[in-house]
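Researcher: For the record, we're logging two predictions in this thread. I'll number them. Prediction 1 follows.
Model: Prediction 1, sequence and structure:
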Amino acid sequence: MTHEAEAAHRAADQSSTDQPGTDRSGTDRSAMTAAEREAADKAASHEAAQSILQAFGGVRGMIDMTLPGLVFIVAFNITHKVSVAAWSALALCGVFVVVRLAKRETIQHAFSGVFGVALGAWISMKTGKAENFYLPGLLWNVGYCVALAVSALVRWPMIGVMLGPVTGEMFTWRKQNPGRLAAYTKATWAWVVIMGIKPLILFPLYFTHNVNLLGWLKVALGIPPMLLAMYVTWQILLKAPPPIKAQLDDEDE
């Protein structure tokens, strides 16, 4: 095994703790060469960056949140009935939940989709206006962008809050790792800009009552912006300092 491969292998099995001199297995980082420390840090940063897709539900989660809108617009075009389209979208969400339960998978993202679709279905059937099916989602997008911006301004960037538990660092990035705080803040602002494109495009269409164009664009703008935001976040975190693992109480004993 070459020197570089050995360093990379060691880095893959280690993660930083809140004691900067040792890794999780107790290895003294001061005993490592500069090249080994650099390789270890790069590996830890890469591993943390890879957690982005997991934090947002993966490809399956994005599909769960996108397909009901597609089913709604297709059913509406076929039947021209708001109620049929709404119930079709809601039924698909129910199928997603049942499948996840059968596979003993988390229903977090599927359930959030059910809630949004149910609210949209109720409003659209209550008002008789098909475009109102998409209103809760549009308002959610605006609220999400505002929440992201506020979180960055108060130095609790939402991307860090979401990824911290996944990477095992929890909130050590706030006090102990200023480089990651800066990276999470930058990534959060990137999400504000990228995800803010959707309501800027879709809200004007909502007020034109052009259901078809609104529905198809809503589907088209579902996954691509999120993938772009994830990619930008991944690139930012690759260059960030490695996470400092949170020291749990049971580890102290």
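Researcher: Logged. Prediction 2.
Model: Prediction 2, sequence and structure:
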Amino acid sequence: MVQAKQKNLRVFEFEETPKEDLIPYIQKNAVLLRGFMLIFKGALDEEVRAFLQSEGLNFLDSSIQLPLKSRESSGEIPFKNITTPTLSPAPLEESGSKEHSRSSTLCLRRTIRSGEEIVASGDVTIFGRINSGAIIRAEGNVQVFGEIHGAIECEGEYMILGKIGQGSVLFGGEILDPSLFHGSLKQVFLEEGRVSIKEIV
């Protein structure tokens, strides 16, 4: 008997990038990227391939442009003239505790410990620090009033953030630049399809 489960595939697509820039970027955001399939345009350097495998990341490399629809694309691209890329699967690790929320708002007044995973179908508000190795995934909006050293994925309309330390924040399909968040609260939102960051006055 065949047992199968439907899974949603979440993808990060990388343009051709020098390995000197690519490896540190992936290293810094590895916790966040583990939940995605990484697709690289062009052939991968053996050192980069070995690094991705050592980090336990799922990736494809191809010397052609794959027919993915992004925010910028206007229509579908047919699946013709596509060669089979190299698939390097990695097992998904289950570690630490996982907390799920089905309510519209999840409010946490504590530090999110390393290894914790918070998954919410609505909004998330955190009055505390997010430690390295902790993961927050929210389908709604996210507000964090503590320093961020873990990973956050927000699918909502906005975020309110203070300082991003060693953490990674994904919003609107982009990983936010931590150097733009020094401690003063900022609002992050989509404006005409682009991520916009403004001080809260």
